[in-house]
Prior knowledge:
- This protein is α+β, with helices and mostly antiparallel strands.
- The protein has 6 domains: 4-103, Rossmann fold, CATH 3.40.50; 133-201, Dna Ligase, domain 1 (2-Layer Sandwich), CATH 3.30.1490; 206-331, ATP-grasp fold, B domain (D-amino Acid Aminotransferase, Chain A, domain 1, 2-Layer Sandwich); 332-451, D-amino Acid Aminotransferase, Chain A, domain 1 (2-Layer Sandwich); 457-575, Glycoprotein, Type 4 Pilin, CATH 3.30.700; 592-658, CATH 2.40.50.100.
- 27% of the residues lie in helices and 33% in strands.
- α4 (89-97) runs antiparallel to α5 (107-114) and α12 (397-409) runs antiparallel to α13 (420-428).
- The N and C termini lie far apart (73 Å).
Amino acid sequence: MFSKILIANRGEIACRIIQTAHRMGIRCVAVYSDADADARHVAMADEAFNIGPAPSSESYLKADKIIEIAKQSGAQAIHPGYGFLSENTQFAEACEANNLVFIGPPSSAIAAMGSKSAAKAIMEKAGVPLVPGYHGDDQSPDTLRKEAAKCGFPLLLKAVAGGGGKGMRVVERMEEFDDALAAAKRESKNAFGNPDMLIERYLTQPRHVEIQVFCDKSGKGVYLAERDCSVQRRHQKVLEEAPAPGLSDETRKAMGEAAVKAAQAINYVGAGTVEFLYDVDGSFFFMEMNTRLQVEHPVTEMVTGQDLVEWQLKVAWGDPLPLEQSQVKTRGHALEARIYAEDPDQDFLPATGNLRYLSTPDESAHVRVDTGVTEGDDISIHYDPMIAKLIVWDETRDQAINRMVQALEHYRIAGVKTNIRFLHALADAQPFREAELTTGFIEDHRELLFPKSKLDTHKALVLAAGFVLEQRKSREVISTDPWSPFGRQNSWRMNSEYAQPLQLQVGDEIHELKVLERDDRYQVFVGDSVYNLTARLDDDFLQAVINGHRISIHGNLHNDQLVLFYEGDTFQCTVYRETYGFEEMAGEGSLAAPMNGAIVAVQAKVGDKVTAGQSLVIMEAMKMEHAIKAPADGIVTEIFFVEGDQVSEGAELIAIEVTADAEEEAG
């Protein structure tokens, strides 16, 4: 077995590989960019080398530098993880040329599946079922338009070299085709350096079911059950599970055998995933093959009891597959939720910030957390905004869902927006519990997945007051006389009762509270209501009783920014001070950057008349494009950035003079 390997990746997957390698007695070499100098994967590795500046194009995508470090460190093999260079044919070839084992498939297999159009031709020849569409070499707009008409609508435009939902557009009718094609080509070229497209008939109620396959160097192949990855946003997976609910044993066997046939058709070696679209009538069609370890591999590990990274290392070393197909068994049900720094209420806009507070559920045989970050780390614009993967297992699907709901309630983050509340609503939604799964699940159930807060606003304000006041108490200077009122921070007055004011800002609204402190309790006045409160704070855990109702919550108070966590929900407020001078991020009629990122395209000129909702700027952040739209009808008076510029969240991009008609409508 290898004695030392280099991991050409970062974050969660680098940490995951190191864990298994160390358990097998293999030393690990990490690489890191300037932004990742203090990252968790660097601390976990036996040694680490700086590889360049923060942008991945100048660090984690520098194949020659990585190979140089591997040779310098004495590593025998390179594990690419997923993303970055994991499916780069030239990198795999370079490893082979430098006598380094690439822990993945042969470069020829990556090349065969790297082009979706070529892959479909190979699968068609191998007898694997395909969705109707076009995957030819002629990429002229006229040809693509004609093939689109043949295919029929709705259809899916997909980048030939794509992945992760990039360079992908659903087109409902011919009138939308040209604009969608231009946008998909631009995004594909920026992400992969290749603008070529393929066209597929878009199934209206499909499920995304994929098969984990493994092949060894002798040509033997097995499949390790299937995963359902239907719940997606922007064509990117959000929640995955294994096994896929509702499939017959015959369908599982047919899909598994088709997946192994697909892998063997390209002389595959190692871990791979064959993705299928599964239709309501039980038919399934080859979609693509990912020639690497998948993000969602832990759910397969949880139901099979196998360590897939260990399998990768053994197969790359030349060992035969650890199990025959007849020996592969599954038990129970597993789910994985991808915890992202993003704002689901703003169309899942990627978020940046500091993880100033991070508390995760306790790990056990039922709960697993795969992450590459620790409290205090920054989520930057340079890399994918995934914070962690939360994986749960139990005997049945219902029990596993209950585990997931509970675990999400115990996952608490402050300092950056996350999708935890959304994931909690998703996992607990009745249609999900009943396995009504399609790739349009999120759009079909938006009302269920974006619920109102579980906490009544007044009750939340009272809890916030209790947290603030109890934390102040915990920081009081200890007096030599414990009964002396002069050492207290409760605005005590001699010979009078004094209700101290407390202002809490929630969004744009400032709430005026008054708090009267007794020896063992508070009276909190909110508007015309009075609440009797007893509270006890232990670190971040508040036990409170409000008018006889006992509530336990967790919270984090930092620089007067308070976040309370309650049953998967959050309540955020600011302890308001007049001197803060709160200001709006952007003025009326202006267009502000909603995140840190880069300008990809400016779609207006000074003097242009624009209408509300018109796309004016395309920004790229976290490897995704985002359209910034006009807030109102008006005339563009200034443009502050050009294509290629880096901008910070809140920066004014374009100034718009709002027209009189728009102002009248607003009034």
